[in-house]
Amino acid sequence: MNDNGIQNFLLWAKSRGVRMNGIKPTHIDARGIGITGQKIMEIPEKAIYSLRSIPTSISSRLPSDIPLHGLLAADLALRSPLTDSPWMKLLPTQSNFTASIPLMWPEELQEFLPRVAYSILKRQKNKFQRECDSVTKAFPSLDQSKYKYFWFIVNTRTFLYETSDMENYSWEDKLCLLPGADLFNHSDDGCTVTWWDNDGYTITANRTYHAGEELCISYGQHANDFLLVEYGFTIPQNPWDEIGLDEVILPKLDSAQQGALAEKGYLGEYKFHAERGPCIRTRAAIAEIQRQVYPNAESEYQVSDTKCDILLKDLLRELMKVANEKLRRLRELQIGEKAHQDLLIERWEQIQQIIVKKINA
Ligand SMILES: C[S@@+](CC[C@H](N)C(=O)[O-])C[C@H]1O[C@@H](n2cnc3c(N)ncnc32)[C@H](O)[C@@H]1O
C-alpha cells in the first residue's frame, strides 16, 4: 500500500469512528505495515538556543577557546535571555541540584563514589573550574555559585546540534538548548530525536504508549556511574551498565606488567559488563596476572576462558568486599543529605547485584 492508500484508509477508519492519537500506520521494511508513533514534538530552528544566540557583548570578553558549554552558561547567568521566561520557572532549583549532582556534594561524600564515577567527577570538576575561572575573570561581579548553577543547567539539558556550517567545530561545541524538549527524562530505549539540518528537531514516539504513560528519550548508551555524575540519577535496570575493576586489578600488577599493558594502551579503565562480560582491557590485564601463574602463556589469547573466568570471579569477590565496606560506612555516615546517601547506596547495591549475578552464573 502506498502513502495515498494509508491516507485513504485513515479517512475511512475515521468515518467509522476509529481515532488514532499520536500513532499512525507506516510501512516497516519486510514486516509490511505496522503502527509507529507520530511526531510528538517539533522544535523549529528559531526556538533553538545555541552559539548563534550569544551576543558579542558576552563572547568577545571571553577566551576564544572557551568551550560552548561554558559560554552558554555564562550567557544564561549574565544576560538572562531565557532565565526570565516561564521556562526558567520550570527548571530545577539550586537545591534540586545540591541533592542530586555529586559535584555539589561535600567532598567527604564524593570519596564514596565508585572509582569510575570519581574519575568522571574529577574530569568534570577540572572542566568546570577552567570555564568558571575564565568567566569570572572576565565578569568579576558574577557569583561562582550562580555560574555553577547555570553550568549544570547546560550540562543536564543540552542536545547534540550540528548544522552544515559547524563541520569544523569540536564535538564539545556541537550542542544547544531546546526549551521544551529538555523536559524529557531518560530511559535506555526512548523516543527518537531527529535533527533535520537547518530546519529543526522532531521527536517521534518509538512505540505505542498508554494514556498518561511517561514518554522518555535516551540521553545515550550510558553506564550508571556516568549518569550519576553527569545527571544526578541512576536507572535500576540499565542495559548499558558496567562496573569498574581498577581498584582490584591495578594493585595486582607489578611495574613490568603495568609497562607491558601500557605499551598496548591497556593500562587502567578495566570494566565488567553484566551481559557482555569483561572488556578487552580487563581481559588483557587478567592475562598479565595469569602469566604469573602460567608463565608459558604468551598472549592474552593463550589464557583460556575458563582460567580467565576463575580469576575474574576472584576479582569480583574482592570488589564485593569493597562494596560491602562502602555500604557499611555509608549507612553509619552523618555527613550530607539523605538524598546523597540514598544515591550512593543505590549505586553500590547495583554494583553488588552485577557481581552476584556473575558469581552465581
Ligand atoms: C533534561 S532534564 C529532564 C527534565 C527534568 N526532570 C526536569 O524536571 O526539568 C534532565 C534531568 O532530569 C532528571 N532525570 C532524567 N531522567 C531521569 C530518570 N530516568 N530518573 C531520574 N531522574 C531523571 C535528572 O535530574 C536529570 O539531570
Entry keywords:
single chain, 361 residues, alpha+beta, set domain protein methyltransferase, domain 1, three-stranded antiparallel sheet, globular, binds S-adenosylmethionine
Account of the 3D structure:
The protein has 361 residues and is of the alpha+beta class. The protein has three domains: 3-37, no CATH class; 47-231, set domain protein methyltransferase, domain 1; 242-359, no CATH class. The protein starts with a helix and ends with a helix. α3 (68-79) crosses α8 and α7 (115-138) runs parallel beside α9. It is built from 14 helices and ten strands. The chain is globular. S-adenosylmethionine is lined by residues 92, 100, 156-157, 182-183, 185-187, 231-233, 235. S-adenosylmethionine (SAM) is lined by residues 92, 100, 156-157, 182-183, 185-187, 231-233, 235.
Inertia-based shape? globular
CATH superfamily of the largest domain: set domain protein methyltransferase, domain 1
Distance between the termini: 49 Å
How are strands sequenced across the largest beta sheet?
A: 3-7-6
Order of helices and strands: HEEEHHHHHHHEEEEHEHHEEHHH
Uncertain segments are: none
- Helical proportion, percent range: 40-55%
Radius of gyration: 25 Å
Main sheet: strands, sense, barrel: 3 strands, antiparallel
Distinct compounds present: S-adenosylmethionine
The helix/strand class is alpha+beta
* Average pLDDT level: 89
